[in-house]
């Protein structure tokens, strides 16, 4: 997990000043429960929110992770995106933008 934490790009908050280098908290499931992982987070100034094996239920973490997993499912609805058949990255990126536009359009139509 340490190389992944070090590879996090600066967090842009829209505020003035130097951008933050790391997020405040790390949400993870029980698979990442180890003393070493918690120490790696704390050494970088990140507060770990990791469910403990056999002690905590991971239901509370689902509230934060559901948004990302739901978005991945929406992108997987487009048949060309989960299995990448395109060789050129610009065409794949165009289909990704198209799917994002369709997702946004569907979300906006719910409110209108």
UniProtKB/TrEMBL annotation:
<feature type="region of interest" description="Disordered">
    <location>
        <begin position="1"/>
        <end position="39"/>
    </location>
</feature>
<dbReference type="Pfam" id="PF13586">
    <property type="entry name" value="DDE_Tnp_1_2"/>
</dbReference>
<feature type="domain" description="Transposase DDE">
    <location>
        <begin position="26"/>
        <end position="106"/>
    </location>
</feature>
<protein>
    <submittedName>
        <fullName>Transposase</fullName>
    </submittedName>
</protein>
<dbReference type="InterPro" id="IPR025668">
    <property type="entry name" value="Tnp_DDE_dom"/>
</dbReference>
<feature type="compositionally biased region" description="Basic and acidic residues">
    <location>
        <begin position="22"/>
        <end position="39"/>
    </location>
</feature>
